[in-house]
Amino acid sequence: MKRMWNYFASILVMGLLAGCSNDTLTGDDSDENLNGSKDAVYMNVSVQLPAGGVGARSKTDTPENGDYGTSTSGTEVGQDKENTVSEVLLVLATTGDELIAHSITETSENMTNLSSTSFSTTKRISKTSIAAYYSKEAGNTDANGNLTTGKDEIHVYVFCNPTTVLKNLIDGAGVGTTAWRDGIAGRTEFDAAITDKKFLMSNAVLAKKKLPKALADWNDYTTENNAFNLSGPNNYGTDKEVVNNGAIRVERSVARFDFKDGSGKNNTYDVVMKNNKPLMQIQLQKMALVNMSRNFYYLRRVSTNGLKDGWNICGVETSSNYVVDTDAAEKNEGITSGFVTYFDYCLGHEEGTSWTIDQTARGQWDTHDISTVLGENAPSDNYGSKEYKIWRYVAENTIPGETSNQKQGITTGVVFKGRMIAPEDADETSSLVQLLKRTDLKGDPMLDPILYTYLTNIYVTWKEVRAAALDENASREFYAAVFGNPSNADKICVEKAAEGDVEAVNAVYSNDPKSPDYLWSQWQASASNTTYWESFRTAAVGSRFTIYQSSKEGSDPVGYYCYYYYWNRHNDNRDNGSMGPMEFGVVRNNVYKLAVTKIDRLGHPRISDNDPDPIEPDEPDEKSDVYLTVSVEVLPWTVRINNIEF
Fold first, then answer.
1. How far is the C-alpha of 291 from the C-alpha of 412, rounded, in Å?
2. Distance (Å, whole) CA 634 – CA 592
3. Which of 50, 170, 326, 415 is the most buried (most CB within 10 A)?
4. In whole angstroms, what is the distance from residue 358 CA to residue 605 CA?
5. Helix axes 516-525 and 530-542, enclosed angle (nearest 10)
6. Predicted confidence (pLDDT) per residue in 443-489, tens digit
7. CA 9, CA 427: separation in Å to the nearest integer?
8. Rounded to an integer, what distance in angstroms lies between the CA atom of residue 298 and that of residue 97?
9. 528: which residues sit within 8 A by CB, 6+ positions away?
10. What is the Cα 362 distance to its own chain's centre?
């Protein structure tokens, strides 16, 4: 799908500092910023802001004829505040990106609105740099002072809403240098880029333009009304004709995450069913961003493997290449520690050689109440029915090389916190429903009842686990997971109360000292002994039991909670369990529209030690066990719709 653009014209006035007297270009006004000289030339440039139309779960659509890469979902028109431009920085460079000149920073822009999405502005550039480019010493001109073949072709870069750091970088760059092109923005600039929604924008594609052949030709462009046109014809039909076709396309330097309720019933999903009616539901209550990259390039770049070698500045993203990240080399070698060096909102808490998802880790995340994200005061998108709400903006984060490099510790993701609840009309004879509706829970994980799951089955207390394992229809694998390999197998039984003439029966536990059942009985005999609890938990989790304990954190009500981890998809290969290139990551100027559409199992427990399948930093982003389904749409301001299923 071709990308659609809205146009605005930027008139950039370029004034020249005094050079040698025989290179002087005389205009008709003075400028104190140029030491009072009258040396000035003017240039027009048209700039295209990113915009578009609408679009399902998506991947990058390979462009035709070198056009800008898009998503198969289409594009979304940006908000007016996302299209606002208050300042423009223009950079002229050789085709090798050696700096020629840049516009002089001014205190305010002289803008004239041409339409709701366009404006014109006035800029100046120093004569010293221009004259130096035309000088014989530079080797760019022939004996007549004309630029030689190819030297009249240049690269033009436009930065909209440049940050102070970026302007200082360009101001400090020496003529003929290329280091400015590889400038890296950090968290301070990310925050600045979205403050007051004045988004930093830069070239979406490489802009090749032509200059006048001779320095003296600039005498034709010394007034605002007769400016050199970087996007159209100049001196048409004369021997000094220079034609520059096409506007310069820009893109925002950040991405956007949107969210909507994919359940259709207040973010609530049926998880445990009986007779086609839910006994337990999961209500998603919070969502948190994790692993947001701390740095990004001012100018996007692509390569065949996501590494620096052979990259193309402002190259087009296709279905078979990679967008290059500032930390590409480190990610390719394997980041195993020091995640805080590379990311904000780190997924795990590092302390020494230890990495875990605990209360400290959760405190690092950028956590939001979903009710606030979807509240009446939350901004709606410009897409479809506008059910999506704009959640937040995110820095670019891509992963190079082998698909196995796409790991949980370095991938930007969203963590959803869900509370286990029972519907109002749920069967109250169920022990699970009774527990979830209790009002006397303390939120103390060691005092309140504990929930256990094995495969898709959920049990309230270990006694229910034992009873299920002793059932004649229980599998041999489940029996062994509970009782191990006991020598007293024929005597193991559950506790039974006296009934009529039948006497009470005391429980008999497995005598296999490595089995969860044996260790649970030891813990119950000395419930205050944490060593027994740890031994039991280790054995149970080792037998593939997941343990859910009650909690009370912050303002959250007492209850049972679980977590769902979603690693953001950029290019969805529609093959769960098998990753493709650039499948996971965040790319600038994309809108990722998220909606949890299905949850059919409990998520990860709050306590990592209770989890037989814990989140680990070196685990691949995509595994065969899927906890939720996320609908993701991504448009440039590409939309990628990710329907999330857990």
1. 5
2. 5
3. 50
4. 11
5. 160
6. 999 999 999 999 989 999 999 999 999 999 999 999 999 999 999 99
7. 66
8. 14
9. none
10. 18
> Distance (Å, rounded) from C-alpha 80 to C-alpha 116?
9
Rounded Cα–Cα distance for residues 319 and 282 (Å): 36
CB distance 97 to 178 below 8 Å = yes
Amino acid sitting at position 284? L
* Cα–Cα distance, 120 to 46 (Å, whole number): 9
Instruction: For 231-264, write each residue's pLDDT tens digit.
Output: 889 999 999 999 998 888 889 999 999 999 999 9
Phi-psi region of 43 (alpha: psi -120 to 50; beta: other; left: phi over 0): beta
Would the pTM count as exceeding 0.85?
Answer: yes
Question: Which residues, in sequence order, are CB contacts of 177 under 8 Å at separation 6+?
Answer: 98, 99
* Secondary structure in 3-state letters for 467-510: HHHHCCCCCHHHHHHHHCCCCCCCCCECCECCECCECCECCECC
Q: Which of 67-76, 184-193, 399-408, 595-604 has the lowest mean pLDDT?
A: 67-76
Give 149: exposed, middle or buried? Use CB within 10 Å, 0-12, 13-18, 19+.
exposed
Residue whose C-alpha is closest to residue 159's, from 382, 4, 314: 314
User: Of 535, 563, 534, 562, nearest to 548 (Cα)?
Assistant: 562
What is the three-class DSSP state of 24?
coil
Distance between CA 519 and CA 397 in Å, rounded?
45
At 375 the three-state DSSP class reads coil
| Number of CB atoms found within 10 A of residue 3's CB | 24
**CA angle 207–212–218, rounded 5-degree value:** 120
Give the integer Cα–Cα distance in Å for 646 and 644. 7
CB-based contacts of 258, cutoff 8 Å, min separation 6: 381, 383, 388, 389, 390, 391, 591, 592, 593, 594
Closest CA to 300 of 159, 455, 191: 159
Classified as helix, coil or strand, 169 is helix
Preceding peptide of 637 cis, ω within 30°: yes
DSSP letters along 72-84, please? TT-B-PPPGGGS-
Contacts of 642 (CB under 8 A, 6+ apart): 57, 566, 568, 569, 572, 592, 593, 594, 595, 630, 631, 632, 633, 634
Output the CA angle 47-51-55, nearest 5 degrees: 155
Q: List, in sequence order, every residue forming a beta bridge with 389; answer none if it has no partner.
A: 259, 380
Rounded to the nearest integer, the mean pLDDT of the chain is 86
